[in-house]
Amino acid sequence: MVSDHWRISVDGDTCIGAGICAGTAPAAFRLVNGVSTPIHETVDADDAVRAAAESCPVEAITVRDRKGAVIAPEP
Ligand code: SF4
Known about the structure:
This protein is an alpha+beta fold. Helix content is 19%, strand content 32%. The strands form 2 sheets. A 4-stranded antiparallel beta sheet has the order 4-1-5-6. Residues 10, 15-21, 36, 56, 58, 60-61 line the site of iron/sulfur cluster.
């Protein structure tokens, strides 16, 4: 099975810098000047990345599959 790749985006205007994402998925997110920034725009499918997007209190993170469908957060 070919591993899936996800694309991460963070809305820097919405992010309040709570840091939950960087704590949940430190390999995928870091805070830069108080704003979450994806370390890599594309990542291997990772439950920690999905959890980070679900945990963001302001839903600033969007995770999409390679076709652009939203994986997290769930509507
Ligand atoms: S959890 Fe959401 S609000 Fe907090 S730093 Fe990450 S993207 Fe920003």
